[in-house]
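Case study 2.
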Amino acid sequence: MSGHNKWSTIKRKKGANDAKRGKIFTKIIKEIIIAAKEGGGDPDSNARLRLAIMNAKGANMPKENIERAIKKAVGSDADNYSETSFEGYGPCGIAIFVECLTDNNNRTVASIRSAFNKHGGKLGTNGSLSSLFDRKGIFTIRNEGLNTEELELELIDAGAQDFEIDEDTLTVTCAKEDFGSVNKKLAELGIEPEEAGLKRIPNNTKQLDLESARKVMRFIEALEDDDDIQNVYHNLEISDELAEELGKA
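Prediction:
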């Protein structure tokens, strides 16, 4: 299994923890708000909102929370979030790409700069890591009662490139350009992913010894605990040994 999917699986399991689930809900609500504010509160005519609602359901967010977020977004007192990103290197030269939704850019910049400095990292300029990551469509599907062979054939026709099965989930990867067609095919098949979106996948990963990898993961988890940060991407190779240790934490 790829390092990206190992880490995603670990985070999904940790998301069962109440404190972690609260963080996940906060990030999803922000995405719902910015999607509804930009494209309106009707998911039938707003693809970004439709995707955000799907991810909210996949995270078991209560329906009333979703409806409240949409209502707030289209009202006069909606929060003004802006999208921004940061790039740099963490401990041991691991590439880090951070995506944010914030209502206070100065606060976010200060917080991220402080985190990089505290953990021995170094912020770079925007675009400095663009060649290290590709944006790809990632779908996480609960593998219950699915004929995965037939499903894979259907999705390959829609543009899917790669499939990984881990315990009870199927992860589907496609090119950025094919995200819409794969999502449409899943809808036609009556399959609603637990999570779907465009993610930054490293072209190459970097291996570290276990202690160095721990330092990097402490930094990544510190970033992910920041409410202004939506996603953190990295090129650390998640070994089986590291994945097992992280799963216990």
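The chain has nine helices and eight strands.
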